[in-house]
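[Meeting: bench + compute handoff]

Bench side (C.D.) handed over the final construct sequence. Compute side (W.E.) agreed to return the predicted structure before the next meeting so the bench team could plan truncations. Sequence as handed over:
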Amino acid sequence: MNGIIYKYFIFAPSIVILFGIFFPILNLIRTSLNFDPLKVNNTKSRNYSYEILSSDEKILSKLSRKFDVFDNTNSIPFFLKYSFISGEDKRFFVHNGIDLIGLSRAFLNNLQSGYFKEGGSTITQQVARLIFLNNELSFQRKIKEIIISLSLDFKYSKNQILKLYLNNIYLGSGAHGVNEASQVYFGKLINELTLSEIALIAGLAPAPSIYSPYENMDLAIKQRNKILESMYFDGYISHTEKDKALKEKVNLNYKKNDKDLKDKLLVNFILEEAEKKIKNQKKYKFLRIKSSINKNWQKIGQKLSKSIGPKNIEIALVSIESETGLIRTMITSKDPSINEFNRVTSAIRPLGSTFKIIPYAAALIEGIKLSNKFEDLPTCWKDYCPKNFSEIYLGNISLIESFKSSSNIVPLKIASDIGLKKIINLANLFGLGYEQKLEEFLPLAIGSYADSLLNITNAYTALNSNGSLHKPNIIEKIHSNSNELIWKNNIVYKKILDTKVNNSLNNLLEKSVSEGTSIAASIKGEKIFGKTGTSDGNRDLWFIGSIKNLTTGVWIGFDENKRSSLSSGNAAYFWKRFVSEIFDLKNE
């Protein structure tokens, strides 16, 4: 009995240690063999390359799709493939995921130099780190990396592993994968890159921040030249090709006027809208999307937006061609390079007095005239006792005077008399009340309910289009790589107001700008139709205005819904600055 107990105490720890070693190893192997390459991208990966153009055919953005790991017809361009192999893993096609020769060479070189000069990781090991592990320097991590690399080499072909690597390697400046690096550094699709440009991108792999051409051009060129020499030595390029690439001047994306639009949210909005219009997306590997964006206006709006203060306050702007519904400008924030929220389409904020156009439209439809008198005096509806802004009341005034002074009492009286149901139905007809459903709640008549800048601006386009409401659209045409027309915008609209009512509403809007609360938007010699709006505590500052065939909406406020020291006059004045510059008007 004592012998059995003795053997148990001897062998039990050994069994525990054995299980402790082999179970994690088996788990690593199982995980790496079962992993799905389609789920490793940090951002949404589209299965097509694209080129987005402005309305005048200038490039806004272009991006190659990630390499399809399982599609053998989606091949890696020759120079791109061998630039990384020559620079990162010369024996890639002959080792089994771990290169013992390379490890030994790196060890000896590091020993001779006295510091860490060269890494011995294969491309497969780098894939293991990118997808399964991290860059922690430890013996345990290295063991895991080796096990996963052997598993990957067993399951996938060399070309599949190389695609995983090129799709996911971080190459600096926010670029994950060579497709994004091609866009970030050169504003090109992968197949448009020159040998010199490919070599520069491949040279970033060891240390993107150190070799970044945006940070140190001389060092980046030195690293590019090293890659080119290596490719020549390995037999992948000729002497002529090498010399030509060495002499080529590096033209980075930021130096080219017609390259990349830096607002990822706007680009994503355009792509999402394009995807809604294409029935069979998988059929197309490339889309050429002609957007309705006016690139010059976009630049002007973005530049002006940076002047808005205080520091953390935000701004959004959208311009819609009134008679077509085409979106010509969309400013999603002051700084689109760090912007993560589309304030034009996704910020649902109280509309304030911009909504008042609805009860006034309802009054005119019911036969009330602009000259009809209303009592602008303190009034209560049961327990609801609203106030005018600054608590100024004008007594017995006409409909047009009440709108000009932006009375709260008069539109509430209109809504109460006509009925909230009619107000809601009319708001819905204008495209409002779908983001936040309108209910029969009296304060809705003065803008207590919320909606997006895009929707309220589009509602005002109807007044600038003889009472016709168009569906807003940011795309004009979509073509395939073979120039096949996939989709074309056909102007669709609905007549929602008769001409007489529409003219009366424009009379109200014109008076609001020329004599009323929206006077900050007035431009000498120009006919402008618009309305300001403010929510409680000046949290939301609006101005929606039309000039010529363009309706532009501006919103200013804090994302965290803080009070501000600004007024809706600031939004109106910003509108004036923007419109004056895009139409080259005298800003007086």
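W.E. noted at the follow-up: The chain has a mean pLDDT of 88. C.D. will use this when planning the next construct.
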